[in-house]
Design goal:
mainly alpha; membrane
Amino acid sequence: MGETKIGNYRWAVCALLFFATTINYIDRQVIGLLKPTLEKEFSWSETDYGNIVMVFAACYALGYILFGNFIDKIGTKLGYSISIIIWSIAAMAHALVKSTFGFGLVRGVLGLGEAGNFPAAVKAVAEWFPKKERALATGIFNSGTSIGAVAAPILVPWILGAYGWQEAFLITGAIGFIWLIFWWIYYEIPSRHKKLSSREYEYIHSDHEPAASPNAVAISWSRLLSLRQTWVFIVGKVLTDPIWWFFLFWLPSYFATTFKLDLTKPSLHLAVVYTATTFGSIGGGYISSFLIKRGWPVLKARKATLLGVAIAVLPIILARYASNIWVAVGIISIAAAAHQAWSANIFTVVSDIVPKRAVSSVVGIGGMAGSIGSTLFPLLVGSLLDYYKAAGNIGAGYNILFIICGLAYFTAWLIIHFLTSRMKPIEL
């Protein structure tokens, strides 16, 4: 049966998820790009800014667990809408605050709201795609994190120069409400959707899973935490999410200290790294989807792809020997792209092994664990780099961190492999 006969409405849903994720990452990065301006405006110290970042990270972790269960209870459409309304209002509210405390407060609300993005998006993919297409769909929407990381440094400085820092928060925050209009018009679960053809509906449910029900009862956290299936996702997030945050927040300073990169100018080197992550996200999703279409068992295809990704990250250990900045960019680009391929597949594993009515809750639990790890890992990074900086050899600190990055994914894969050795999807 050809794709044109089946229908393609599910990919329009995927596009909505992609744009929401892009907006999510633009909104969270605005404050970092405006940091030099805000430091002068409010006389911030590095400690002040660090506290604001920590508030966001802590509330993001809390928001994951709250929204995960909440979205399973009220449904994807309303849950995603509430999430983006909260974070968009909070993003715009940055323009109104007059103190450091005020920035911490709105930053916390932003973290709570933004945490609903991934539980809702992964649940939507589970509702709208058969297993053989879920990783590709997840890879596409997850690439919004990379597009957002590239778009924000272009958009925000332009708004700042043309209008001012308040307008930068107002304009970027308002984008979420534009998305909300399209979401409310075009999204509904397949069983309720009036524009969905019967053939596409049958194709979406070709795995013979129960269709998503608007009246499904959420499964308790205690029940989910007792299952190995939930711990597969927790392990996959808690060991690798901190590495992604390290790539986002410390790579610029690594290039600056190691290769004397001038961060006051647009950086092609960083653009290459973050652009590579887009290809990693989509490519990683495509590979496991391709293997399933070739007849591989679903879990075997996911684990084989995750193993390949873990192996692709290993060469980052050799970054310490790179004497040319473009060699380092090449090695780190592969590792960063591999992380996004990992992310696309580890999110999809959730929808493979837990019921649709529990997908958002499990994503919330694992996402919270990953966020806590991402909050604590910078303490190690900072103390390690401060120690070696005082010793006059900060490069040695980065070398240790690259070894941790290289081994994290392979360690996670080994644990996941043993957890899933005889695993079957949950039947509840």
